[in-house]
Description:
This protein is α+β, with helices and mostly antiparallel strands. It has helices at residues 2-30, 37-45, 48-53, 86-99, 113-116, 133-141, 146-157, 160-173, 195-205, 212-215, 278-295, 389-402, and strands at 59-64, 69-74, 80-81, 108-110, 130-132, 192-193, 219-222, 227-230, 242-250, 254-263, 266-275, 296-299, 311-314, 320-321, 323-325, 331-334, 342-347, 351-352, 360-368, 371-380.
Amino acid sequence: MRRKNIRKLVCCVVTAAALILGSAETVFASSGGEQTAAAQQASKNITPDEELQTISAQAYILTEMQTGKVLYEKDADKSIFSSHFNKLMTLLLLSEKIKNGSISVGDSFTATERANACNDPQIWLDKGEKITVDELIKSITVGNANDAAVTIAENISGNEDSFVESMNKRSRALGMDHTVFKDPTGVNKANTTTPRDLSKLCAKLSRYEFLTPYLKTWLVKVRNAKAELVNSNRLVRNLPGITGMKACSSAENGSCGCVTVQSAGMKLCAVVVGCADSDKRDQDIKKLFKCGARSFQLYRPEIPGEMLENIPVTGGEKLECELEAENTPLVVIKRGTASQLEVRMSREQLIKAPVEKGQKYAEYTLCYEKDPVCTVDIVSKESIEVMNWWCGVKKLLYNLIKL
Length: 403
């Protein structure tokens, strides 16, 4: 218990220091830290390409999460020690259980001796202690608590090994082809991932909107205020449109961050690794978001009415086939280029029965500078069988009655 009391004292000191530094930053910003009008104008005149050249991260990627479009990248497949980013997958597996109703945030999990033995960072769970899922989420989103991650893993899967199997199975399903999880905490140095894989994980996790308040929390107390946690992702305090994720540092990777925002109508995810310190990390993330918002926009194509007009059918139970757009996808285009998109259309003039529902009969493509931006398939709304003799008689009678 004496060891835990010492750890609690250290945590309190760290928390106080973080708060003091945060206040100092605020004071600086309000007393001489402002850019001059000339400096602000000079910053606006820097092109996105020039801005990207000033990013110090060893590797990075910026994606639009709704479309999966990569906007900018540098060494995005660089293999890194995943460290606390493992907890994002731990959080995803927990969130999926919450969504399907098998677990509630009000449920209580029990900490084991294994959880109690975890190294820092932790919330000092005692063996046999019960703690709510709500507090466990706070503990891994804000505090990166290892004992909280282990408690989640053991209560969901029975043991850590089974949970790790689920982590790796889920990562493969998400296309995280260069990620290997060894534990739910990120302690094992054999845990590996890449910036590209992390962006896929963040995109999936961002769909669970109930997590946003947790991921945006700066300071929180858990276990009846026995543990006070400060978010290492300092951008949650002041970055407009931020929806969360995680920051961490290690000797192997330097300072790293995965941050998601809603900006300029897009949902963006920036992943940076290998920054010299947390200040450089935050600056690089802001630069990526700034470049993305200035350079790109979302666009949904409108299908012309003539593309959806019925197509005549020969030899079928019906004389015409109704059409519909198979999808009208959101796409990312260069900002301000919507009016410059070139339209290419192709369409069958006559089709022969039988017709299968969903069969493609037309295509609508948008291009920019001759490169395809998106293609929309126009398909049949229903199936149409070949006309038999009885159907022919009914059609003949119908036509006679009309006369």
